[in-house]
Amino acid sequence: MFVGTDEKTATEESDRLSLTLPGNQVDLIKAVAAANPNTIIVMQTLGCVEVEEFKNLQNIPGIIWVGYNGQAQGDAIASILFW
């Protein structure tokens, strides 16, 4: 499952007031993980993001952090996930 931030929640021009994922993404992660025992989280963020609420959930065997967009980013993520 892909989650993350965008230019509305993390920019160079403003300070972030929280390190949590914006919106209801943490609740969504928990719901998907409850239904799927092999949920891998791919976080594409502009900066650090708090993972304490879901990093130790039994159904999440891995979290992958990726930065923003390189030319072969999609291929690289697919190689990691489907190796």
Question: Which keywords apply here?
Answer:
83 residues; three-stranded parallel sheet; alpha/beta; 2 helices; flat
Low-confidence stretches: none
Q: Give the strand line-up of the largest sheet.
A: 1-2-3
- What's the total helix number? 2
Apparent shape: flat
Alpha-beta content class = alpha/beta
Helix content: 10-25%
- What is the number of strand segments? 3
Question: Explain this structure to me?
Answer:
This protein has 83 residues and is an alpha/beta fold. The chain is built from two helices and three strands. It has helices at 25-35, 73-81, and strands spanning 2-4, 40-44, 62-66. A three-stranded parallel sheet has the order 1-2-3, with no helix packed on it. α1 links the parallel β1 and β2. The model has no long low-confidence stretch (mean pLDDT 88).
